[in-house]
What we know:
Elements: H1 2-22, H2 28-31, E1 35-39, E2 42-45, H3 46-57, H4 73-95, H5 102-128, H6 131-145, E3 149-158, H7 161-171, H8 178-185, H9 189-193, E4 197-202, H10 208-215, E5 226-228, E6 231-242, H11 248-275
Helix pairs in contact: 1-3, 1-11, 3-4, 5-11, 6-11
Amino acid sequence: MKKLLTTFTFISIFAANQACAxxxxxxxxxxxKTIIASYEGGRVxxxxxxxxxxxxxxxxxxxxxxxxxxxxxxxxxxxIKEVVLKELAAREAKKRNLDDEKxxxxxxxxxxxxxxxxxxxxxxxxxxxxxxxxxxxxxxxVVKLKDKKDIKISYVIVKTKAEADGVYALVSKNPNxxxxxxxxxxxxxxxxxxxGDLGFVMEDLLPAEILAQxxxxxxxxxxxxxxxGDKWVVVKFEDERxxxxxxxxxSKDALAQNLxxxxxxDFIAQNLEKAKINIAVK
Length: 282
């Protein structure tokens, strides 16, 4: 659950950030100087309207990439009026010293801490996914994977040892019926539909007990049942090959995303552990 939450936080931050980037066709430096409208006591810049559009687009996936130029006259006027209204309302609130009230200061602090958290996560992700860091990570992976193997197995997962022994008794004598047994009896319905075929998987990613059983027989052979967690597994060793390593160009985007995600998750895990949180109410 913790991993799911941190992943969701990461995705949410970057989705909002991307919406802001897509909605602005004018560079950050130019957008604050380009004036879209003026009013008594102020002006509306391209940056102002783009930020307003980004807030709307972030709430609706269908509006992702929307720009001010794509709006019709009435829509543009509505966006401009909303920007002006917010500024005028803020000025009036300050005249009335509403910004000195306790609830406002508490809300402002809450907003500030949330915004700083998001900015930190973005900074961590940007640092981790830099070209230099991605290249370093790729080179390390190439060295690490140099002598590794991709293992192709098929398997049948069942609840009890007795069930596993029954499957093994049949398929060990006739490996050609392995696929039929997987489709009929495996608890893993996804691989079961494919005759238990897991495809090629890097050996380090397989559970140790599964890999050991696959290695205990020759290609095409079926290993004796083995316990894995609270289930029993019958493994058929299909094939093996050297690990296929994609080029840096093909790998860099996925590596950058993984490094960015890991940087945020590591920060969260490490800092929560250091905080030594003591929950008084349960």
